[in-house]
Write a structure and sequence with these properties.
The complex is a heterodimer of chains A (about 110) and B (about 110). Chain A has about 110 residues and is mainly β. In chain A, the strands form 2 sheets. In chain A, strands 2, 4, 5, 6, 9, 10 and 11 form a 7-stranded mixed beta sheet that branches. In chain B, a hairpin with a 4-residue loop joins strand 7 and strand 8. The chains are: A mainly beta (about 110), B mainly beta (about 110).
């Protein structure tokens, strides 16, 4: 099993550009999450999904949108990138019965100029 | 919401010694406390969790202690190895919530 995969691994955007980060998991997990990680601030939840077709806002949702059209995929969109969105983005997934144990992808390093 | 914080941002440990990583939390209503390990260039990895009705839980070479009186938890790593060099995060969760609240992380460096 590949676990949780993320594409792309690196990306550089100019202010105002848009992009989509793709997360895929092959563990049949019900829950999926998007986090951002900034130096000295730990992981902050952007959006999450408890099932196909459902999404919810996390701690820092502004400037991001998500979609979960298929159970195994969770997409994170940046509508109009800003320098403040420069960060490392992690996707994670978990079983409904095991919410403490989240399985993380390798991350996407995004730089917005 | 929950606020979790770590006491020290860095910890240097001699190989073979025991490591103790500390974490404080603010919300006494949290039901679960969790430790994650993040190696350089990788995503975080679950280590161990403990429910709020427990004081201690042991895993493979790791022990988590929970002191609800002072809202403090710690992760003890026995016989620290070079592969234990990583950033360690504590997190908290309420049982009726899906979300984890993470602390800022402690960077553990193992000296040979």
């Amino acid at each position: 099993n590949a676990g949780v995969t993320q594409t792309p691994k690196f990306r550089v955007l100019k202010t105002g550009q848009s992009m989509t980060l793709l997360c895929a998991q092959d563990m049949n997990h019900e829950y999926m999450y998007w986090y951002r990680q900034d130096p000295g601030m730990g992981l902050r939840l952007i959006h999450y999904s408890v099932g196909e077709g459902t999404t919810a806002k996390g701690e820092v949702p502004d400037g991001y949108n998500v979609s979960r059209l298929k159970k195994q995929n969770f997409l994170l969109g940046l509508e109009s990138a800003a320098p403040s969105q420069t960060s490392v983005y992690f996707c994670a997934s978990s079983y409904r019965s095991g919410k403490n144990e989240q399985f993380f992808g390798p991350g996407t390093r995004l730089t917005v100029l | 919401g929950e606020s979790v914080g770590l006491h020290l941002p860095t910890l240097s440990v001699q190989e073979g010694d025991n490591s103790i990583i500390n974490c404080a939390y603010s919300n006494s209503a949290s039901d679960y406390f969790i430790w994650y390990k993040q190696e350089s260039g990788k995503g975080p990895q679950f280590i161990i969790d403990i429910r709020s009705n427990m004081d201690k839980r042991q895993g493979q070479r790791v022990t988590v202690l929970l002191n609800k009186t002072v809202k403090h938890l710690s992760l003890q790593i026995a016989a620290t190895q070079p592969g234990d060099s990583a950033v360690y995060f504590c997190a908290a969760r309420n049982s009726n919530d899906y979300k984890l609240s993470f602390g800022a992380g402690t960077t553990v460096t193992v000296r040979a």
